[in-house]
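Render this sequence as a predicted structure.
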Amino acid sequence: MYCDDHKAVSSHRLLSSRLRRMLLSFLLLFINGCVLKSVINSPSLLAQSITTGLQAITAFDVYVDHAKVHLIVAGTAANHPLKAGVYYLQSADGGLHWTSPIIISANTSAPIATRGNDIQLAVAGQKLLAAWQTQGELPNMGPIASVYSLDGGKTWASGSNPAINNKGDQSHLDLTADQHGVFHAVWLEDPEENGYQSLRYAQSSHTGLRWDAAMTLDTSTCSCCWNTLLVTPNAELNVLYRDMQPRDMALIQSQDQGKSWQPISRVGAFNWTFEGCPHVGGALAFSGNDKLALHSLTWTGAEQYRGLYYLRSDNNGKSWTAPYRLGNKAVHGDIAANADAQVIAVWDEMGAEGTGIVSAQSQDNGATWPVAKRLSATNTSATHPRIVVTASGFLALWTEKANKNPAELIMAVFNHDGTTPSTLP
């Protein structure tokens, strides 16, 4: 099996005198209750570690709704080092400033989330829904729990399980909300105890308080790869997931708000035959308004192709461009695109200076990709980046460890053209 074993490498960051001055100025800044420790890693971006009173961060999710960026983080509170919690915070300026974190204190079981099986968040105006896997009878396995907020994240209450039942293992879920405020969920589970996971779907018009009956989208899938759920401006629902045979990524789609689903294509036909689980899902985004393009990142372990690839579809996922390989040893990736044909891919890959986060930016809707740049600090272990489109540009986030310290949450802020904002906090 392909597993992650990122080990931090002991070292200290080397900064020029100019960068030291910039670092000190940023360290003096308090932003709405959150302290940002900053260091410039390249001329085109700002990377910041977000200090929220949390440590040992195990999972997070980020979601953009109109002008606001919403974030939930699973970690250990500094004043309660033996008790993990889930915290919520938001930004109104693309990630440059953040509100003070609010602990989600509903009577809901704690998550057993890890990177790749993260907690999830979806937002529709003042309505927020979060969900995660909880501990069941067997170690590292259990049902889904959810919480919701009707006042923009100020207060939270316990929701219900989209799977309806609490049997077996329910994991690798994803959430989104459509233009009508309906929430959608996909996840993996095996309620029939067939010995393999199936891909399930449910929707809620009640912010997770009640769910419609769950549907099976695929009876047999890879058991431990994350799923990606995307709703496009034309109200189509897309799910990117890793199929069973072959172990390539597959796209399934609904054009009637989740009532029925149709398999569309394999996203990267590598014909990978593998009996284990790679623990790697894919990424999906769209660009354009009237004429949409779908953008995807897929990873394969096929011997002759092993790596992370970018693909684009201009016909609603029915066919895809030839796979374009990203990075040298790239694994976990994410992608975001905007209406102006800017596309940014982020991923982690192993190098001589540790596992780092790398970014590549395309200014022509994915047709060409300039040289990639490292975002994370050297001599650290960074993994599972996320990237989203904001009202002011792009925001990338990941978890990063230095030495034997607990994992921190790091972010990089970009303008729409991929450059650093001209006005920084």
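Summary. The chain has one helix and 30 strands. The longest strand covers residues 54-65.
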